[in-house]
Structure prediction request, 264 residues.
Amino acid sequence: MIVPPPLSKVNLKDFDPNDNGNMERDAAEAAVDQLRDELSVLQEKLYASNEKSLLLVFQAMDAGGKDGTIKKVLSGINPQGVHVTSFKAPTSEELAHDFLWRIHAHTPAKGYISVFNRNHYEDVLVVRVDKLAPELVWRERYDHINNFEKFLYDSGTRILKFYLHIDKDEQKERFQKRLDDPEKHWKFDIADMRKREQWDEYMKAYEDMLSKCNTEYAPWHIVPANRKWYRNLVVMQAIVETMRDMDLHYPEPQTGLDKVVIPD
Ligand code: AMP
Ligand code: MG
Prediction:
């Protein structure tokens, strides 16, 4: 089960980060390549018809694979129709507004796909664990987020949310690889060590987020993410299935195209 029933209580211990769907790596990679071709056509129809939009939300612990998934799954589609936003710690201007202000500014226009690498859920994750706001404030945010996402949905935006689920051992291995490889040092952030120490608190915050904000109009996908190739397939499948369901068509051509003679 990758999408739990809406608003059910999620216990992350029930989700195995090592799950590989009983697949071999080669088969999964071949399936991703095939789906990428279909995704490319679907995205072109989304862009050409200019009526609906798609929002892809990625969240994970550090080294959980957000960047890698975005790179792998979205490579090969027309960059003109996609915007990727990475949300960092808010600036003073952003903090002077409500927490959804900076998020809303990056939601997709008609015809576009927007990708959020981190997102408004940081405001019930790091903000909760690091006590950056009082409990009374972050507790209300689950409702605010659900209402916001319903509003986007009602406005023509399909929303898919992916939590990339790795375990603590896998994170350690990935951190170690970053330390061992000079070309990966840029990805190593000493501040991430503190977040690792807060692992259990984060898991509690993630479980609440996945329980309270998993709705029919904006489902959370809990993606087994220890194996990158299976993670990519799960995310790719969810995106393609959703876009197939969006009933996308090229717009009607101008009348009289059959009579057009291209001048010399
Ligand atoms: P990275 O994605 O590795 O570039 O790191 C971005 C950092 O920004 C992470 O440590 C996030 O937890 C932090 N961040 C993102 N959004 C927020 C937020 N709303 N409040 C506080 N920190 C945030
Ligand atoms: Mg980082």
